[in-house]
């Protein structure tokens, strides 16, 4: 089980004092959060991709490259790479470059985002969202796996004898997670290729999450990649902790009530009851996170959102200390004890490289 955090990079006023951080402060805060994640023993830091206020992470590979230079162990990922509005050639080249700089500590999560206007900004039509995701990823896979690509599709100019550079590190492309909270077509796409499926269940009830993950697992097995319980699943979540739950609820409530996404909607109590949000003690976070197995089965990656809604960086770093010291060690131990034999670990560059070497050896033996 990989345990980590993701950031959407929102620049939001602190509702308790009205202060809004500058963009520079927010970007540097994201770096500090990533460094703290490694310090406290987390496995993954992931950044979103947005091209509109109030968000700052418009260039994930720039941010992750900077973090790569200052970390040694942390897996670097995205909480969405916009496969629909980003050129797959640029994605192929940018993430291969990041792979080399980070010594393989890179994967990415593909998605369509939740901002409709981004499509015309990048010359696309939102009504083509699913076809764009399908076609662009098919090209991205070829660019990483074929040295010379001839290609023609519907949404971008043709390629003739094109080689994406640099080539993936050790000829092993980064692992890909397909992220969707509502589209079965994306779960189907992940299953078809045998890639990972990430459901960022921060807004959804467990019944919906369960249906989406079950669809992916069933289709993963249908396409011959292994049994359903061998499919690679990741989940999102949100937490805010203090020593006792009453203090956590009181401190977090103004941030929840004014959050840019779910503020002025359901009550904090209703939202924590219906979704993955946990506001309470470390033990409550442990218990609720372990309960995610009931809806998703044995899964490989759990990412928490912790720096949103205007929370000051000091508070976020305190939260990471609690997560690393009191929550993550217990989750690691409990998830490991519960995981049946045969359920794979989260893929890494090392494991993918070993699998590729084994496949090559088997082919040589057969030949």
Descriptive notes:
There is one protein chain. The protein starts with a strand and ends with a helix. Strand 1, helix 1 and strand 2 form a beta-alpha-beta unit. The chain contains 13 helices and twelve strands. With 367 residues, the protein is of the alpha/beta class. Strands 1, 2, 3, 4, 5, 8, 9, 10, 11 and 12 form a ten-stranded parallel beta sheet that branches. Helix 2 packs parallel to helix 3.
Give short descriptive properties of this protein.
367 residues, alpha/beta, ten-stranded parallel β-sheet, two-stranded antiparallel ribbon, 13 helices, 12 strands, 45% helix, globular
Topology overview:
Layout: E1 2-7, H1 23-39, E2 44-47, H2 60-68, E3 75-78, E4 81-82, H3 88-101, E5 107-111, H4 118-121, H5 129-145, E6 149-151, E7 159-162, E8 175-179, H6 184-193, E9 196-199, H7 206-222, E10 233-241, H8 245-257, H9 268-274, E11 277-280, H10 282-291, H11 293-296, E12 301-305, H12 313-338, H13 349-366
Parallel strand pairs: 1-2, 1-12, 2-3, 4-5, 5-8, 8-9, 9-10, 10-11, 10-12
Antiparallel strand pairs: 6-7
Order of helices and strands: EHEHEEHEHHEEEHEHEHHEHHEHH
Strand content: 5-15%
Mean pLDDT: 94
Helical content band = 40-55%
Work out the number of β strands.
12
Shape: globular
What is the number of helices?
Answer: 13
Show unreliable segments.
none
Over all CA atoms, what is the radius of gyration? Answer: 20 Å
Question: How would a crystallographer describe the biggest sheet?
Answer: 10 strands, parallel
| SS-based class | alpha/beta
InterPro entries: Bact_Lucif_Oxidored (IPR050766), LLM_FMN-dep_put (IPR023934), Luciferase-like_dom (IPR011251), Luciferase-like_sf (IPR036661)
Protein name: LLM class flavin-dependent oxidoreductase
Keywords: Monooxygenase, Oxidoreductase
Pfam family, one: Bac_luciferase
